[in-house]
């Protein structure tokens, strides 16, 4: 086969973050992680907060944290739309723990449902980040 | 005849005004370039979002119980008009044109017996609407481009709008902004946000590309997630477009202001020189006639 690679694109509303041919990418879907190889069946899935792993050969070459979004897979392409995306190597454990702490305080300080919802989202995000750092 | 000193002061003041307008023009040009880059960079996301939405809407939109964001609430009694203008003036007719467009629409709706509400983006849009529609302005957001025009600002707006929609406070939502055509031409336009209007080519390209998709978890669920985000994306898109238009409008306004100031300085200088010459001639005549009288 001539083309054994997938075109992987990671797009945020502000810019195109990543666009490269890769051997495989594993995306954290809503119903569980899924790997995308060339000639994958076309699908659209929601993405939960987690880590996108990009494989070159059998090794993970890059790990990118995304805070949810959508993935569109066609036979030759995989596009992930994410509002927040940051390489795992740039996440700092102490900062994230601090964020989690702050979010928890916000949650207990929040006076209405809207505030609590926003804080809960922050808590979930920070926890997902912590898991990503591992 | 104008006093020489007055003329001198006048020229100096026009000169300093010219300096300011030409500096503003330069700043606007730099900001315009950045805004254009930003608008360009945001395009891939919006395009892909549209493609997904097109194919989803085609498959899930026909089913009963589809999201009201897609098919509407079934009424169109209350309209929310989002008027996106700038925080600052001195940009030609930019703000006025957008507000004029919105006002025209509002009058049409009111004539048809509908209720109109406003959500203002930018200080100028609120200032211009306040006198006529003060009581129907629900909220205003200012300083959207400070420190930089980020996606989070668009999310703030869309969250507010969606909360209103969920509470049943309006049925149809339209956003007014200036489409950036070129530095000189900005077209005030209206775009309907809720219910979602698929642009003609959106669903066609969705179908052409790979045909039918599998949906995970399910098409309705994805659609429910996707639609609110699409609102933020659309708002973000209009904000970026608007920013580029604003700087473009300011650039051309400041360019002609600088040119006008230049012409004014030329005219004043000629007048100044003529007056000076007339004064000298006068003095000479006085001296000569004094000499002859002796």
State the helicity of chain A in percent bands. 25-40%
- Return the average pLDDT of chain B rounded to an integer: 86
* Largest beta-sheet details of chain B: 5 strands, mixed
Q: Give the terminus-to-terminus CA distance of chain B.
A: 31 Å
Largest sheet of chain A: 5 strands, mixed
CATH topology of the largest domain in chain B: Pyruvate Kinase, Chain: A, domain 1
Mean pLDDT of chain A equals 85
Q: Strand portion of chain B, in percent?
A: 5-15%
Oligomeric status = heterodimer
The CATH superfamily of the largest domain in chain B turns out to be ATP synthase, F1 complex, gamma subunit
> How many structural domains are formed by the residues of chain A?
2
Strand line-up across the major sheet of chain A:
2-1-9-8-5
Number of strands of chain A: 10
Plain-language structure description:
The complex is a heterodimer of chains A (134) and B (294). Chain A is 28% helix and 43% strand. With 134 residues, chain A is an alpha+beta fold. Chain A folds into two domains: 83 residues, F0F1 ATP synthase delta/epsilon subunit, N-terminal (ATP Synthase, domain 1); 42 residues. In chain A, helix 1 runs antiparallel to helix 2. Chain B contains seven helices and six strands; from the N terminus they run ααβαβαβαββαβα. In chain B, helix 4 links the parallel strand 2 and strand 3. Chain B is elongated, with a radius of gyration of 28 Å. About 4% of the residues of chain B have low confidence. Strand 5 of chain A pairs parallel with strand 6 of chain B, so a sheet runs across the interface.
């Amino acid at each position: 086969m001539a083309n054994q690679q997938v075109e992987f694109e990671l797009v945020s509303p502000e810019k195109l973050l990543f666009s490269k041919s890769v051997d495989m990418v594993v995306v954290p879907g809503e119903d569980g992680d899924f790997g995308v190889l060339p000639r994958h069946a076309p699908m659209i899935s929601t993405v939960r907060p987690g880590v996108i792993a990009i494989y070159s050969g059998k090794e993970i070459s890059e790990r990118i944290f995304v805070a949810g979004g959508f993935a569109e897979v066609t036979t030759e392409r995989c596009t992930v739309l994410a509002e927040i995306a940051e390489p795992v190597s740039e996440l700092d454990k102490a900062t994230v723990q601090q964020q989690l702490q702050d979010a928890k305080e916000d949650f207990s300080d929040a006076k209405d449902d809207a505030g609590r919802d926003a804080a809960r989202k922050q808590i979930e995000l920070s926890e997902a980040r912590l898991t990503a750092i591992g | 005849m104008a006093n020489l000193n007055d003329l001198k002061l006048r020229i100096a003041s026009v000169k300093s005004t010219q300096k300011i307008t030409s500096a503003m023009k330069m700043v606007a040009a730099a900001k315009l370039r950045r805004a254009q880059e930003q608008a360009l960079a945001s395009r891939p996301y919006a395009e892909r979002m549209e493609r997904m939405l097109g194919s989803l809407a085609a498959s899930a939109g026909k089913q009963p119980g589809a999201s009201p964001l897609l098919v509407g609430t079934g009424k169109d009694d209350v309209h929310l008009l989002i008027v996106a203008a700038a925080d600052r003036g001195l940009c030609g007719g930019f703000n006025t044109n957008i507000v004029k467009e919105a006002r025209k629409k509002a009058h049409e709706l009111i004539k048809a017996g509908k209720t109109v509400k406003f959500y203002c983006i930018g200080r100028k849009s609120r200032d211009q609407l306040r006198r006529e529609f003060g009581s129907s302005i629900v909220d205003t957001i200012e300083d959207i481009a400070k420190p930089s025009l980020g996606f989070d600002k668009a999310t703030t707006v869309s969250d507010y709008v969606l909360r209103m929609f969920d509470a049943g406070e309006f049925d149809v939502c339209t956003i007014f902004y200036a489409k950036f055509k070129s530095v000189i031409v900005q077209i005030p336009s209206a775009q309907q946000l809720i219910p979602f209007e698929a642009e003609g080519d959106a669903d066609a390209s969705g179908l052409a590309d790979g045909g039918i998709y599998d949906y995970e978890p399910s098409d309705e669920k994805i659609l429910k997630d996707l639609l609110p985000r699409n609102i933020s994306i659309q708002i973000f898109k209009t904000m970026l477009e608007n920013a580029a238009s604003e700087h473009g409008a300011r650039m051309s306004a400041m360019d002609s202001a600088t040119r006008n100031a230049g012409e004014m300085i030329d005219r004043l200088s000629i007048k100044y020189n003529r007056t000076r010459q007339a004064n000298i001639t006068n003095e000479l005549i006085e001296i000569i006639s004094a000499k002859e009288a002796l």
